[in-house]
Write a structure and sequence with these properties.
Layout lengths: L3 H17 L20 H8 L3 H9 L6 H10 L4 H10 L9 H17 L5 E4 L5 E4 L1 H7 L12 H7 L1 H6 L3 H16 L6 H13 L4 H4 L10 E5 L7 E8 L8 E7 L2 H18 L1
Antiparallel strand pairs: 1-2, 1-5, 3-4, 4-5
Helix pairs in contact: 2-3, 2-4, 4-5, 5-10, 7-13, 8-10, 8-11
Length: 280
């Protein structure tokens, strides 16, 4: 069952999406006079097959919903997969975080895969986007995660706070926002999850210029895209970001940055082997 505060967060999330929809988006005809932005509550209730009073209480955080009913509301609000997952977690329907031992075993299993990509930066993230394992190419491009305290060794924190990452990454904001939208959908509500709450507190303290992001209700999948970086020791490198879930833990995520061309591969190879040549 959801706590009252979590139910209120779910209600705010549903209300924000209701207000973004127009009647035409769901096959309804708009009337001339509409005081409410987006859809009315009674329209969402009708599309979901629930009573108006019940849906009103749901938005007010006064009641909880079953999975089946919440899925019907999500369909009425045209939520995508990330939105549905986030709504389910706000309602208390989310998988428990793996134990520390399970996370270590997952890292041990995936690390050889990451290491096999010698010129492609790759990292293993848990459900909270904490970094569990990474390869040498990741360290060469973004810096060693071990330089960051364990409580802040998190992709969302690095995207928001790490100045090196923000300096070398072109068009930082669209990717950072997409990472946050996926983080929000993946991590679940802060009030019901101590680690998520801790991360939000770190972000509030360490990235005050992005405070307006943390109150945003948008969620999204992390999409494949081209990423351009300019490391200090190299020219611009174009990489393709892709992601996949390990079979041992579908809540975890592997991010892979693959060089686009032979020239990009050569630059990443040079960047990755530079510390080895310097040591030699």
């Amino acid at each position: 069952m959801s706590t009252p505060a979590v139910s209120q967060e779910l209600g705010a999330f549903l209300r924000a999406h209701r207000e973004r929809l127009q009647p035409s988006d769901v096959g309804l005809t708009a009337t001339a006079r509409r005081r409410t932005p987006g859809l009315r509550r009674e329209e969402v209730a009708s599309l979901s097959g629930v009573g108006l009073a019940w849906y009103t209480w749901l938005e007010q955080g006064r009641i909880t919903a079953s999975r089946q009913v919440l899925e019907a509301v999500a369909r009425a609000l045209r939520l995508d997969a990330a939105g549905l997952r986030h709504a389910m977690r706000l309602a208390g329907y989310h998988e428990p975080a793996p134990a520390q031992l399970a996370a270590e075993r997952l890292a041990d299993a995936v690390r050889p895969v990451l290491d096999s990509w010698t010129a492609s930066p790759a990292v293993l993230l848990d459900r909270h986007f904490d970094l569990l394992a990474w390869n040498a190419a990741w360290t060469a491009l973004w810096g060693s995660p071990e330089k960051v305290g364990a409580d802040r060794r998190n992709l969302m924190w690095l995207m928001a706070v790490d100045r090196h990452l923000r300096t070398v990454l072109h068009d930082w904001e669209p990717l950072a926002m997409n990472v946050f939208q996926h983080f929000r959908a993946q991590a679940g509500p802060a009030i019901a999850d101590p680690r998520t709450d801790e991360l939000y507190r770190h972000l509030e303290a360490d990235a005050p210029d992005l405070r307006h992001w943390w109150g945003c209700h948008t969620v999204a999948e992390l999409t494949a895209r081209e990423v351009v970086v300019s490391p200090p020791a190299s020219g611009a490198v174009r990489l393709t970001l892709s992601s996949f879930h390990p079979v041992d833990d579908p809540s975890a995520l592997v991010l892979l940055f693959t060089p686009n061309t032979a020239a990009d591969l050569a630059r990443m190879t040079d960047l990755t082997t530079l510390p080895l040549r310097a040591t030699a």
